[in-house]
Structure formats: structure tokens, C-alpha cells
Write a structure and sequence with these properties.
Distance between the termini: 36 Å
Strand order of the largest sheet: 1-2
Strand content: under 5%
Helix content: over 70%
Number of helices: 11
Structural class: mainly alpha
């Protein structure tokens, strides 16, 4: 005997969360991302200010809103914040965070590259080429790290898989730390060559080659950081 899932209607706070997200998207396109005041939202949505306040707090925890005392609520794109905070609590040792991040990247990024080779639009291919050129031509450390990170995030977007793209965005803080460590130890030459191999495979629509090139790139990155696999837990 199996039980059917019981559909639970959304609570009032959840409904307000949905409304705030819709308002936020509209205002972000039309204005600078600031939402109406708590009082105005309460009147507009026909709910109490406490319900608006609770919904806003939930969205802030999710990285979609930023509540600024005395200023109001601003739409932000900080979806990585909840995951990043949780990872730092669960894995306090930085080296172990880098080891485990690398394991996740091996599981995620070759597939992102494979899908990008199959699905990337002309606009996304243009953005990937531009990001690669920025890494090749940059002279300062900070631009190097950001260009490298952008390339990987763009591949995730080009995969056409929204969840995979969101996962890469959520890992952005950890990825930036990993890249910063790596570039302090080695030059960008290997990364430029590896990115070029990945890009060439994606441009050629060769999914298998793209996945292999990404895996090789991650192996080089792991070696640059001097990381080993996490020990068995058995």
C-alpha cells in the first residue's frame, strides 16, 4: 500500500514570498532593485506588516533580498550565501573545504562542459570566448581569479541546466578561494591552456572532448593546490 502525497496549500507567508519575488523581478528591470516600503507592501498585498517582515527575512536568508536598516529592502543576487555559510560551519578546516570542493567540481563540471558543447547558444559561446580572452590578457591577480571563475560559471549557464548553474553560483565563494590559492602557487599558463582546450571542444560541439578537457583541467588544478583525495571514512 502506498500513500499519496498530501498537497499542502502554501501559507500566507509563502504566498507573500512569491509576491515579493515577482515584485523584485519587476522592479529590478524597471528601477534600481529597491522594493516599496514595508508599509506600502502591506497595503499593496493586503496583509499585515508582520507577515511582510517574516517573508522578507526568509528571502534574505535565501540571498534574494538585503534588508538595510533605515533604508529598506533591496533585491540582490547572493544565492551563494546560505550554502557558503553552512559549508564554513560544517567544514571549518580550509584545506578540507578545498579538498571537498574539488570532489564536487569533478562530479559537476565535466557534465556542465559536456552539456554546454551540446546546448550553448551563439551568445553564450561569444561570452565564453570573451571570458577566455580576459584570462589570457589580464595582468593583475584579482582580474585573473575573476576571469577564471567567470569562465566556469558561464559554462554552467551554457549547459542549459538551471540547477547546475545555480550550484556553480552557490559555490562561487569557495571557488574564488580555491583559485586564489592556486594562482599564488603557479602561473596562469596551465589554466589558460586548459581553458582553451575546453573552449575549443565546446565550440566544436564535441561533448565527449569537452568533458575530458574539463576533467584534465580539474586534475591540474588539484595538483597545483597539492590536494589529495579525502581519506576513506570506513
Amino acid at each position: 500500500m502506498t500513500l499519496d502525497t498530501i498537497a499542502r496549500p502554501p501559507s500566507l507567508v509563502e504566498k507573500v514570498c512569491q509576491s515579493l519575488v515577482a515584485i523584485a523581478r519587476r522592479d529590478l528591470q524597471e528601477d534600481d532593485g529597491w522594493l516599496p516600503t514595508e508599509r506600502e507592501l502591506s497595503a499593496q498585498l493586503g496583509v499585515s506588516r508582520s507577515v511582510v517582515r517574516e517573508a522578507a527575512k526568509r528571502l534574505e536568508l535565501q540571498g534574494l533580498l538585503e534588508i538595510r536598516q533605515g533604508s529598506g529592502m533591496k533585491v540582490v543576487d547572493k544565492l551563494h550565501k546560505p550554502l557558503s555559510s553552512a559549508v564554513h560551519m560544517l567544514v571549518p578546516d580550509e584545506k578540507q573545504r578545498l579538498v571537498q570542493l574539488t570532489e564536487v567540481r569533478f562530479a559537476l563540471e565535466p557534465e556542465n562542459a559536456r552539456l554546454a558543447a551540446e546546448r550553448a547558444t551563439a551568445s553564450e559561446l561569444k561570452q565564453l570566448k570573451a571570458a577566455h580572452e580576459r584570462l589570457k590578457n589580464c595582468q593583475d591577480f584579482e582580474t585573473q581569479v575573476l576571469a577564471d571563475m567567470e569562465f566556469h560559471c558561464l559554462i554552467a549557464e551554457a549547459s542549459g541546466n538551471k540547477i547546475g548553474s545555480l550550484l556553480m553560483q552557490s559555490l562561487s565563494d569557495l571557488l574564488q578561494t580555491s583559485l586564489s590559492h592556486g594562482y599564488r602557487l603557479v602561473t596562469k599558463d596551465q589554466a589558460v591552456a586548459d581553458h582553451g582546450n575546453v573552449l575549443d571542444a565546446i565550440l566544436a560541439r564535441n561533448a565527449t572532448a569537452a568533458a575530458t578537457a574539463m576533467k584534465n583541467h580539474l586534475l591540474h588544478a588539484r595538483d597545483d593546490l597539492g590536494l589529495k583525495k579525502a581519506p576513506s571514512r570506513r
